[in-house]
Amino acid sequence: MSSNKSVESKVEEDLRSVLIIACSTCSVIGACVIIASFLLVRSVRTASRCIVVVMAIADIMVALPTLISEIIYVTETKSLQTKELCKIQSIFTTVGAQVSMIWTAGLAQHMFILVACRKEAVKGGFIILTVMTLAVIG
Questions:
Q1: Residue 80 DSSP code
Q2: What are phi and psi of 89, to 5 degrees?
Q3: Would you give the DSSP letter of residue 81?
Q4: 8 A C-beta contact, residue 57 and residue 89
Q5: Per-residue pLDDT for the chain (138 aa), expressed as one digit of tens each?
Q6: Most buried among 5, 20, 78, 82, using CB within 10 Å?
Q7: What is the pLDDT of residue 129?
Q8: How many CB atoms lie within 10 A of CB 5?
C-alpha cells in the first residue's frame, strides 16, 4: 500500500514539474512574441498595445524565475533551493504580479475611456499608472 502511494506521489510530482516547465515556457515565449511584434510592426504601436507590452514584461518577470527555479529543482535531484535563490524568485514574481495587476486595471480604464467616452485616454494617465506601480512596489 505504501509503495503505491510513493509511486503516485512521484508521478504527481513529476507531472507538476512538467506542467510548471511547460506553462512557464509558453508564457515566456508568448510574452516575447508580443514584445517583438510591438517593436517590429509600427502599425500596432498604440497606447493599448503599449500597456499590453508592459503586462508582457510583467509576465516574463513571473514566468522566467519560476521556470528557472523549477529546472534547478528537477536537475538538482529535487534538493532544496538556496535561500538566496528563493528570495530572488520571490521578489521577481511578487513585483511582476503586482505590476501586472495594476496595469491590467489601467488597461481596463483605458479601454473604458476609449469605448464608453469615445475619447483618447489622457497621456498623463500612463505616468500616473507608472507612479502607482512604483509606489505599490516600493
A1: P
A2: -60, -40
A3: P
A4: no
A5: 456 667 768 888 889 999 999 999 999 999 999 999 999 999 888 877 888 888 899 899 899 988 988 888 888 755 555 777 778 888 888 888 888 888 887 777 777 777 777 666 555 666 666 676 667 665
A6: 20
A7: 67
A8: 9
Residue type, 37: S
Q: Cα-flanking dihedrals φ and ψ of residue 60, to 5°?
A: -65, -40
Residue 59 burial by Cβ neighbours in a 10 Å radius (0-12, 13-18, 19+) = buried
Coil/strand/helix, residue 82: coil
- Element holding 96 (H helix, E strand): helix 83-115
Asked if 113 and 119 touch (Cβ cutoff 8 Å), the reply is yes
Global model pTM greater than 0.85: no
Number of alpha carbons in the 13 Å side-chain half-sphere of residue 120: 4
The rounded distance, in Å, linking the Cα atoms of 116 and 107 is 14
The helix, strand and coil proportions of the chain, stated in percent and rounded to the nearest 5, come to 85, 0, 15
